[in-house]
Write a structure and sequence with these properties.
single chain, about 280 residues, 9-stranded parallel beta sheet, 8-stranded parallel beta sheet
Amino acid sequence: MLFPTDDLQKALSQAAPGSVLELSEGDFRCKVMIQVPDLTIRGQGAGKTRIVWGDYAKKPDSLGREYNTFRTWTAAVCASGVSMYDLSIVNDALRPEVLGQEVALTVYADRFHMERCVLTSTQDTLFLGPLPDDLIARYDGFLPDILRRNIACRQFFRDCRIEGTVDFIFGCGEATFENCEIRSLWDARNIGFLAAPAHALAQEKGFLFRNCRLTAEEGVPAASVFLARPWRDYGMCEFVNCVTEGTHIHPLGFDKWNDTRRDLTARFYEIPMTSGRVPWAKTKG
């Protein structure tokens, strides 16, 4: 059993492949990278066991460079077959309009599984690797190679709550969210986006939200949050049998991303389709 300590990263690095790591109640105030395959990490409940850190995109590093979105994670999973249960992962910088993006969890790995967990931040809460090809090239020498791999990544989330403001579920992973709560938080900019997929055209599967609840905290304006916008041309996102609680979702449903023409290429689906959605959203019969 582990107790709240800054040595969580050491414990993770010493864990054997295929082992189970039990975390006690409390806040683990640390930034951790998980590189042990087939590791299972269990907390005592999402409200009791929390991994917390507060990096942000505009933070200067030791060389005076901004951290950039992809170095702000509180936890990064970089090994295949990792599972997490009954804990929270939090980025508590919480001022994206001033500090920039603030990632709570990065999953740059295949066969990731998470249940009964809470992910909390603001802009860019959950990054699902891999990176788009152009960013893999752009960040050569800036990001570590383990966060730049061109690999297939499948991720699964069940009975989780994911909270954020703008693009708070984003990336190129093949990810399924089942029976999850996708919760929009108040943002000073008064606009939000649940998902920002960036899948390549060759990818046949993207983000799938199935039987999820779309909720919002008090103060989020009506019609201020879009379901998704395409971070790259062929981003793919499906909302299947999801229920909106409240008035925060914009009637158009989807956004094409600023002045792009991604409405011509994005692969966005809603089943069943809500009346009044953008004409380029699709449904599957």
